[in-house]
Amino acid sequence: MKINQLYERYSKHLFFTSLRITGNSALAEEAMQDAFIKYHLLKDKESIENPEAWLIKSAVRNSIDLIRKEQRGKRLQEEFAAEAAEPIYRDSDMPSAYGISDLLNQPNLIEEIKSAIAALPRAQRIAVSLRLLEGFDYEEIAQITGVEQKSIRSNYMRGRERIAQYLKSHRYGREQI
Asked: Structure pTM?
């Protein structure tokens, strides 16, 4: 069956399945589209006995992955919003503090956090990325990297502090990291 025929036949079903999982029409649309793209790019489509089941399974997995990605972004914002809300300068011309809700509502915060992570030294960047973005615990990170848990914790804490300082200084237009 051609991809156009599959799309016409199963797109609504996949969309609504993904919508029930994600609760967001844009994410559901993305999950559905990704399923069709993956199917289209398969080299051995003929070996798939039930294309509908394959597409549904793919859309469900895509939906779950998109939710996880979105949750990582929210965790990232919440993780650093509280630390970035504390002022580092007490100049009279600057506000005394940002409210946490103000920081969470700023659209560029995730991009700023990603920039701060990218500017970290390698060991801190790895620890922060694997802990915050990927959700691994210290033991798993130690297994992945071959570094002791004690070092992972230390690098993670130092990295978090540097990110918070970056965000604070960035908010006040001061020198970064």
From this structure: 0.48
